[in-house]
Amino acid sequence: MDEFSDEQLIEFFINSKKISYFDELVRRHIGKIRAMIYTMVLNDADADELTQEVFLKVVRYIDRFKGKSKFSTWLYKIAINTVKSFFSKRSKSQVDNWAEPPEMLDSKLKPDTCLVESELNGKITKALSSLSPLLRSAITMTCINGLSIQEAADVSGCVTATMYWRVHEARRILKIKLLDKV
Fold first, then answer.
1. CATH number of 6-181
2. In sequence order, which residues have a C-beta less than 8 Å from that of residue 50 and are 6 or more positions away?
3. Residues ≥6 apart with Cβ < 8 Å to 19
């Protein structure tokens, strides 16, 4: 199914209701969506639950996708709104209990290299947790997921200048936090 675009898969799914078309969309996008959500909530269990919630919303409302933007942009918007809703339900603006990132260490690395990598990941995670959800989502979408400033602004429902400021401010804060810890 790699030869089909996202939009074609959506059309096939809507017309035939064959789950294999939707499964392909999930396969293509779940990694990026889950990674983006994780960098915003900084907790594996919450990231897994929210990722599942995003794709449940997508399957429920896929007929509302009109193709005015890329499917990935629409999907990111759903993910961002799901995370915003999550934070408002928990009435927190920051993550208090940050979790260590999952171990993804290369078994060929020396133990001291693994320790340094693990410590650095913890510092980055803690620095990310100090950002507000708006700044965290801006830096996640642009620097981690590779969305353009315009795409990130569209997803967030703000103007491009605001997104530039958010990314700049997030970088400034992260730089301060990470340099203090080095």
1. 1.10.1740.10
2. 37, 41, 79, 82, 83, 86
3. 13
Give the chain's length.
Answer: 182
Q: Residue with structure tokens 């990026």? A: 32
**What is the dihedral sign for C-alpha 100, 103, 104, 109?**
positive
Sorted by sequence, the CB contacts under 8 Å of residue 105 that are 6+ apart come out as: 114, 117, 118
**Distance (Å, rounded) from C-alpha 12 to C-alpha 63?**
11
Q: State pLDDT tens for residues 82-126.
A: 998 998 887 644 444 444 444 444 445 555 555 556 666 678 888
Any idea where the domains of the chain sit in the sequence? 6-181
Percentage helix, strand, coil, to 5, in the chain? 75, 0, 25
Query: In this predicted structure, what is the pLDDT of residue 129?
Result: 85
Q: Residue 99, Cβ neighbours under 10 Å: how many?
A: 17
Q: What is the distance in angstroms between the CA of the first residue and the CA of the last residue of the chain? A: 47
Query: How many other CB atoms sit within 10 Å of the CB of residue 159?
Result: 11
Q: Give 34's Cβ-side CA count (13 Å radius).
A: 11
**What amino acid is encoded at 50 in this protein?**
L
Sign of the dihedral through C-alpha 158, 62, 44, 31: negative
